[in-house]
Structures are given as C-alpha cells and as structure tokens.
Amino acid sequence: MVKKLLVLGDSFCHGVGTVSAFKDPRNIEFAFGSYVAKHLNLGYENLAEPGSSVLRTVENGYHYLHTHKNDIDTVMIGWTMPNRIGIYNNNAMLQILPSYILLGNNSDDDVFVEYQNNVKFITDKNNQRYLKVLPELHRLIIDNNFFHQAASSLMYVELFRTWLVSQKIKYYDFSVFGYNYNTCLSASFKDVMPLNRHPTITEQKKFADILIEQL
C-alpha cells in the first residue's frame, strides 16, 4: 500500500478558486499538495477546509490521524490567520472572520449574501432566515475583542506539533499568510501572489515548487 501525504489547512490549502469558489473535491487536485505528493511519490489526502481556523485544522488532523495514522507518511500543515473563529457539526458550520461570516454548509453553492461595512454575510438555504442577525453577531465579536486570540492559536499549533512528534509522525508546516508561527518551512503564499484573493492553478503550482525546494 502506498502511504499518503496528508494536507491540513484553510481555503488556500484546499485549492479554492482553482475549480470552484466553494469546498469541492475537484479543487484539491490543483492545490499545492497534489504536486508535492507526486514529487514525494506518495498518495494524497487533503482535509483542508475553506474558512478553517487554526483550532479546526488541529481538530481535523488529530481525529483523522487517530484512525488513519498507519496510512500517512507525511503531514503538511498550512497555518491560517490566528483570528478566525468557528463552530462545527456534521451538517453546518458558523465561521466568523474579520471580513465575513458563513453560516451553513461550505460545500453548498446555493447561497444568500449581504454586505455591510465591507463585511460579507453568507448563509446557505437552510439558514437563510438567520442572515439578518449575522451583522449583529459580527459586531458583538468586534466590540468584545474576540478576534484577538493569537496566543490561543499559537498554543494550539505548539500542542499539535508536540503530539505529532510524540506519535512519531513526520510533518512540515508553514504559515499561509506569513504570520509568525515559527514554522519549519519559511514559504507563504505571499511569495507567489497578492493575498487579496485565492490562488490560481498556476500560483498553486509555483507555491508547490517553493515548498519542494525547502523539504
């Protein structure tokens, strides 16, 4: 059995924008992990999620590796911005970022959108009735300074690294947007593109080339 490269992270790691603007398995085939896996002669598993927080990235990796540790050769983690907040269940999520809120399923492209003060508010059809309350929720988060949780994100990063080492799981990590997480790889997406949009297929390949040089 060929072991796999496991990729964890956010929308940039998932490949959003290469095929679809939403969570879509077609995106992952054009994300950087696909090229890195081929270079390493490994299979490929991509659990990165659009809008994912640092805590969500850790949770996804921890639970997956508990069951599939023997299938994985290497883990590659792209740490996102530290100021993302998320609540998740099997069918929906509430993702709260400084620039937008998403309530619903991030694979659903049938969405409802409003804008206020340069912030984007998004729901799927099942949650459309809550669209009007999201601006107040966003204001509550800002007024109470809940976005400033960099220390907590750094703690989750360090705890997950320590756990990977304890399990003898090989990993590489980097900061998607260039935040200082003391990662083992120095690359970030700012090396190949402006960070006000998602990467193209060409930019994902360029980023993969930078990662491969640093492995």
How is the secondary structure organized here?
Elements: E1 4-8, H1 11-14, H2 25-28, H3 32-39, E2 43-46, H4 54-68, E3 72-79, E4 85-88, E5 93-96, E6 100-104, E7 111-116, E8 119-124, H5 134-143, H6 150-166, E9 170-175, H7 201-214
Parallel strand pairs: 1-2, 1-3, 3-9, 6-8
Antiparallel strand pairs: 4-5, 5-6, 7-8
H/E order of the elements? EHHHEHEEEEEEHHEH
Order the strands across the largest sheet as they lie in space.
4-5-6-8-7
Contiguous low-pLDDT stretches (5 residues minimum) are none
Total domains: 2
Please name the CATH topology of the largest domain: Rossmann fold
Tally of alpha and pi helices = 7
Record field, number of beta strands: 9
Which strand-content bin applies to the residues? 15-25%
Radius of gyration: 17 Å
Distance between the termini: 23 Å
Give the mean pLDDT: 96
Short account of what is shown:
The chain has 215 residues and is an alpha/beta fold. The chain is 33% helix and 22% strand.
